[in-house]
């Protein structure tokens, strides 16, 4: 966080605020009363600006925090400039077209994931005497290989990027832009390479990784789920609760500790689909597992099998980022946060 911001009530901007992580981040900011790290409120929040292409919901229990819900497309001329006009102390840039969507619609992926990001950074650069903390949500999709066994396991934080999807390319470019705009002093950027977030509540999205959640989420609610890959596919996971924790810690982290490399691979859990299913069995029993139906989808398998099966997150861990302890914990987090503690 930039020097001099601690303790002063501030404005915080969240792009992509209508999405899962944006909603949970908003709820956590309101519950904590601001940006809290290591048990103390370092930056009380006076105003939250929630922006997305659909109107973000305004929480009913906002307390004394003023909330603005803004329907905004960052790639449209003038939109980013209006969003940063208040000079927010912290910008959480979560807006994105997810992996499967960016692969299916080439133009849309680049418009949102690249053009929107560049427009936001340019709008910040144009404001004099202002250096906000910008937290950029990147992805493990920046790493890739064909075949995937050419990737080291775990993947080092500083491995050269060889993304095998348009989404991975777009996020990789975003990381480079964040580092360059930080180097030039236009902003104070921290990028976090998120694991696949599991279990995602609600309706499925266009992410190729969506089935990792649905094979747990649907059975936990008593519904059938489709598994499009083999059970030996290995991947890197974190719960939504951990993802919000990553964002908050990135917002308060001393940027001087990062040096020139501004993006970090986040800690998580490396697990196979089969290990996911066994965690479901331990938490919810055999009847839940019986609701999973195998229906191969070669395109989804192609995408997810090019991703890193595990990341070396030792740099992030040394800086205080913490993830879930086990996959059983990931399942229990969903039951506690989304199902009221009850399995359907």
TrEMBL record:
CDD domains: Gne_like_SDR_e. One of its GO terms (molecular function) is oxidoreductase activity. Residues 12-236 form the NAD-dependent epimerase/dehydratase domain. SUPFAM superfamilies: NAD(P)-binding Rossmann-fold domains. The keyword NADP applies. The keyword NADP applies. Keywords: Carbohydrate metabolism, NADP. This is Nucleoside-diphosphate-sugar epimerase. It comes from Microlunatus kandeliicorticis.
